[in-house]
Amino acid sequence: MEKIRCAIIGSGNIGMNLLYKIKRSHVLECSLFVGRNEKSENLRDAGRMGVNVAANSTQALIDQSDLYEIVFDATTAEAHRIAAPLLKRMGKHVIDLTPSKVGKLCVPCLNWQDCLGEMNVNMVTCGGQSMVPLAYALTRACPQTTYLETVSTISSASAGTGTRENIDEYILTTRQALQEFAGGMPGGDGRKTKAMIVLNPADPPIIMRNTLYAMAEDPDLEEIGKSVGKMAEVIQSYVPGFQIMVNPVLLQEGIIAVTAQVEGAGDFLPAYAGNLDIITCAGIEMAEHYARQWLEEEGRCLF
Predict the structure, then answer these.
(1) What is the fold, at CATH topology level, of the domain defined by 126-272?
(2) Mean local confidence (pLDDT), 140-163
(3) CB neighbours (10 Å) of residue 246?
(4) What does the alpha-carbon distance between residue 91 and residue 154 come to, in Å, rounded to a whole number?
(5) 22 and 74 in contact (C-beta within 8 Å)?
(6) Paired residues of 70 in beta bridges
(7) What contacts 100, CB < 8 A, 6 or more positions away?
(8) pLDDT of 165-214, one tens digit each?
(9) What is the DSSP letter of 38?
């Protein structure tokens, strides 16, 4: 069966992790791997894997535009804001793994179908991919929720230059996703939201942990638990390392908490780097939805 060709821009940890996952995909293949440092070990390794590589950044996307249909952007929010108009003019579909907020916010388990008609989708953040679905599930079971807060704790060792450069955008984009998916329409009078991230320097490195806090009057923990549990199963269908560690509990009157852990698959990154793994899993999931639609429309996909 034919596959949909993809380019990856950004030869860091996220870009390389994407490459390993695409190698396993039944409907995607990586035809171009782009960075900006010709001495990059990841570029050399990708070349040894049989992938076309280039070190001249977005210029390579222009020069070799016939090699791909989908672009995964694994650079930075600032870089994506520059590249996005170019890719739009070229008519390329973009899976943005930076917190740039340029394209439509995408959390596959919540809105992949709504994103199929979009040319540029933004995968929010690692905390967004793990906690926004749980916030959505919680508020559906507990409509009287008045406040949502997420706290993501990741290993400092898993936070590279790109992650650190994007921390301000991380907070803003995660909060926006909470508001859009679980807190009412943007700019409306929906629930108040807050997002935080902690880089833990512990050695050995810790596995990513995320806690969602909510405020509500007379919450039904049993109903909330059922709703959150069902959503966790959906997330696990494409993020196998996702796991609820602490089921919804009442910390004190009116304050609910639920905690999830994300362990990486160990494709390219260590297992503790679940923060990087979950966003690449989400990006691959959305790209595969694009690919299956296109292949089915062309009669090239049999499942």
Answers:
(1) Dihydrodipicolinate Reductase; domain 2 (3.30.360)
(2) 95
(3) 12
(4) 36
(5) no
(6) 6, 93
(7) 77, 78, 80, 81, 84, 122, 169, 173
(8) 899 999 999 999 999 999 865 544 568 999 999 999 999 999 999 999 99
(9) T
C-beta of residue 257 within 8 angstroms of C-beta of residue 80: no
The per-residue pLDDT for 162 is 83
Fold: same for 4-124+280-297 and 126-272? no
Nearest CA to 61 out of 50, 75, 48 is that of 75
Cβ distance 97 to 279 under 8 Å? yes
Residues constituting the chain: 303
**Domain spans of the chain?**
4-124+280-297, 126-272
List 30's β-bridge partners, or say none: 6
pLDDT confidence tier of residue 300, bands split at 50, 70 and 90: low
Q: Hunting for tokens 């070229």 — which residue is that? A: 90
Quick: pLDDT tens for 206-232: 999 999 999 999 999 999 999 999 999
The span from the CA of 127 to the CA of 154, in Å, is 10
Structure confidence by residue, pLDDT tens digits, 231-269 = 999 999 999 999 999 999 999 999 999 999 999 999 999
> How far is the C-alpha of 298 from the C-alpha of 303, rounded, in Å?
13
Cα–Cα distance for residue pair 168/118, rounded to 1 Å: 26
Catalytic residues: 126
User: Can you tell me the distance from the alpha carbon of 195 to that of 238, in angstroms, rounded to the nearest whole number?
Assistant: 24
Maximum C-alpha span of the chain: 60
Two tokens, residue 185: 């329409």
Look at the domain 4-124+280-297 and name its fold: Rossmann fold (3.40.50)
Pair 46, 11: CB distance under 8 Å: yes
